[in-house]
Amino acid sequence: MPANRADRLLWRTACRSPGWLVSLGGVSVVGAVAALLLPDAVARAVDAALAVGDAAAAWSTLVLAVLLVAADGVGELAQAHCAASGTAWLRRRLTRHLMALEMREHRRFAPGDMVSRLSGDAAEAGGVGPLCVQLLTALVVSLGAVVALALLDWWLAVVFLVSVPVALRLAGTHLRRTNDDVAAYQRLSGELSARLLDAVRGVRTIEAAGAVEREVGRVLRPLPALAEAGRGMWRSQAVLVWRAGLLLPAVEVAVLTTAGMGVSSGRMSVGDLVAAAGYVALGMTAIRYGPHLTRLARARAAAARLLAVLDVPTRAGGGRPAPPGAGRIVLCGVSVHGERGEPLLSSVDLVVPEGAMVAVVGRSGSGKSTLAAVVAGLLEPDRGQVLLDGVPLRDLRSDGMGALVACAFERPTLLGATVADAIAYGCDVSSRPSPEALRSAAAAAQVDDVIARLPRGMDTPMDAVPLSGGEAQRFGLARALAREARVLVLDDAMSSVDAATEARLTHAVTSSLPGRTRVVVTHRLTTAARADLVLWLDGGRVRGYAPHHDLWCEPDYRSVFAVP
Amino acid sequence: MTGRGLRVGRSSRSSRVVPWRRPAAPGGAWRLYRHALSGCRRPVLVLAAWSLVEGVPGALSGHLLGLAVDRGFAAGRTGEGVFWLALFGAVAVLGALGARRVFAGLGDVVEPLRDALVTAVTRGVLVRGTGGGRLPEGAVVARLTRHVEVVRDVTGGLLVQARSLVVTAVAAVVGLVVVARELAWFVVPPLVFAIGLFVALLPSLVRRQQEVVFADERAAEAAATVLTGFRDVVACGARQQAAGQVVAEVDAQERTAVRLASASALREVVVAVGGYLPLALVLVVAPGLVAAGRMSAGAVVAAVAYLTTGVQPALRSLVQVVGSAAVRLVVTTRRLAEVSVPKPVAETREPSGISGASGFSASFRASGISGTSGPCGAVVVQPPSSPLSPPEVSVRGLTFRWGPRAEPVIRDLDLDLPPGEHLALVGPSGIGKSTVVRLLTGLLPVERGEVLVGGVRVDQVDQRALRRAVALIPQEAYVFGGTVRENLALLAPGTDDASLLRSVAEVGAQSIVDRLGGLDGSLDHGGGTLSAGERQLLAAARVHASAAGLVILDEATSHLDPRAEERVEEAFVRRGGTLVVVAHRLSSAMRARRVLLLDGDGALVGRHDELRARSSLYAHLVDAWHTDVPAPGMVRS
After folding, report:
1. In this structure, what CATH number is given to the domain that contains residue A481?
2. Average pLDDT for residues A48-75, to the nearest whole number?
3. B74 to chain A: nearest residue by CA?
4. For this UniProt entry, which segments traverse the membrane (chain B) (predicted)?
């Protein structure tokens, strides 16, 4: 086992399908041996032909060729199996790990970055086993070719070993790229994407103005400069190519001249000369695989990037089942810090009686959403604890939480393939709401009329549902209402709907959900007025916790609801 | 796209256009690619010419090696052998020189190809528009740009590698046939057979490669969805479900990769038949030919050299390169063809029918849409702040639904918009206000009933005139990277600075423009540091400066505070012309002359106070509005 942790991960990845890895090794050995024997067999066949010998040597060529081809074919299959299973293992592991993270830890990674680790880095690291086999095989073949040359005539090996570095030097002197064109190309192509994205965001305006061609012209303005930079890149590559193209012939001429002299002096046969030509090509195999060494370096870097995620501890998660109760929430000395240590909530003590509706109000930045997240169990407080019916939230089984606390957000992400799936998302098969329950949740969330206008109603794929912000909010609300949870947490979940709809929603939330404890973050006066209690937050502290009309006499409280 | 399996979900903010991923006909990809290459016939010929030079060593090397043996080394004349080998080296230099020229010329083929593809994709994305649905998300755009780069790189790679391999193989075969004609029968038929076999294998390779691409995309999409919506996943207690969905896609991905490999492994048969079989056959028959005196030692060496250093490695690499790169090219080009529009779109749709030529568009010409001759023969440029005479719009029996089973969004709507009208559209969110606006402006085809603009059916009106006469400002303002002037003059290019600044001042965007550094100030992509409200103000100033006679604000002031919103609306009232406001706040309706109320079952038109008396929904809306707007004195005491 390697000492480095990233290497250890790579080692375990490579060992995911040991059977295929071993067969890959096996066929690689067979292939390498066949490849090394082939030039000699050809040489013997040539000699036999010139000496008017028999054709047996020719048949051994064919046998070796078949062996070589078969080994390559099986090798390709084994390689794909190894790489695919290693990659998939890493991806599964990473996915499960990411899904088990604490919210707070999860936020440290941008989704795009995670996706690139899942798709790019996992693939890079997953193919490490076959890559190592390939590199080893190439090395063995090259060394074997040098030995074979030496066996033909030791001068051949000497000339080969001397001429390769000279030729490499000749080819490599101009390996510096002209980086200016590359940088310009990248910059301009980024500029082009940014312009296209601008236009895509404004596509409604462009469509309405009938200005497609004009805007196409605007987006494409950097195109000529981009093409010029591209041409520059090709030109500088041309210089590289021409040098690299001389590498093999230079070595070939050197070795074949030596072999030819051997033929002249009678030390070697004509067949040996043919064999020498074959071994020169084989000897260069390792050089052709040189670039693959950077792939190995990339695989190690990728493994390190995967480890950076896998090292983050996952949510501990208690194992306690749901306690009996009706949704009484108690917060004891709850404090939450932000990323830079700034306090978001400072020792909040609170009791929400079962079945009560509490409106959470305050200016932006006063900690309303943080409080909602803490109550919903989405955020573990840094200090203090949250009790639901007497049991700390952190001790509850994480997948049972969905049945106890339901949340709706200002900007919900709707997951699930169809409308029905999106509303029932997260409910396991046994507790999935009936179609009627889904419909009544949709009706309560005032989204049933939107669903009725969809081409296939509840079965419409979510892809095909055009959603405004307000509609998405109401779908999110329906999702929260569909699960009959004890506690309902609404984090500004009705802000984007018009006043009349909001009035109906507030009515649904305040009066038609008897028995459920509701914590509602809101900016609206009407919602606060209808709540049993108002929790007024200011700078992460509780400024007041009383019915709306008791607080209304305070000018500071009234200013919370000011029209911006 | 149907049949593409599970989509796990989607963020409400970033959303995609519905009818996007139509499976393209395979011919579409080929047509697109051919169109993109159509401009580079000459560079391709130049490339072919240098390829011939590049192929010289392939054709001569075996022969030169044979001569070195026959006349030199085997005959005991070392000097002559070395001479022929030196020539062998010189020919290799010539070939490398050819390769260099080929590379230098690649830019002339590959870069125009990329230009044409970028153009086609950009146009395709913009033409397709929203389809009335949601906006395509940034990731889709990013993927398209990446696809174009893939096509460029792969085309370049193919031109470099595959072309050179073909040249090498052909040159070697030609060289071999010239040196030893008798051997042609043992070399050419297996080679032809092998190539035929490979061509037969290609479709299944393409199919499986495509499966791999799709599986990769689906897995990435599934992961992106649950990772973006992680908070919702946790809140729904769906950690396991979400992980399970991604893992299912990962498993599918693994299966497709293995399936592709088993198809690829068959390519080795091609190498065996085309590369090694001729070699073995030549070696079997050579003794007989040498004995009969029909072949020299040098010819045998030459033939073996052509086969082992020319044909066999070239075929092997060709099969590898074409089997992966070309297949990737096909798959990627197909994806691009789904969204591309190669040829410019005709935005000036000719009016079909005689009525179109008269009526509306004729009245437009009379009103001087683009600077007509004045009484003294001088060109009169339309002052942008005084809009064109607005067209009269009337709607009769308009009905629209999104699908045959869906409830209609709008049913039997009758509406008249006389010139100078100020109408507010009011209704609960999601009721279809934007749909009505799109129907009115001809952006969405009318299903039943008719929309007449200037007495002509909206689909028969001259489109260019229509788009100039009508300006629609959507909720998401279009602000692009460029100068403030470019942004403001989008709808009326060439408008003078004074008019632009007048419009800026009218809508209340003065402080923003000042902060940006005046008209010459520049804006970052996506509006950069501007807030959503500031972007909306710029969009309003732009339309204010245009010549449109009918202006529609589709929640275009939603991010402004009520006072700023009022200022914008008043600026458009002062500007003249017809104004339609899709109301975000009820205050917009109170300012309008008439109100169109949509409530799902039908539509009502009337003055604010009339509707309040006639419609309980409207009264309800008004009440809800009033209770939520505390009287200023009460709050700011």
Report:
1. 3.40.50.300
2. 82
3. A264
4. 44-69, 81-99, 162-180, 186-206, 269-290
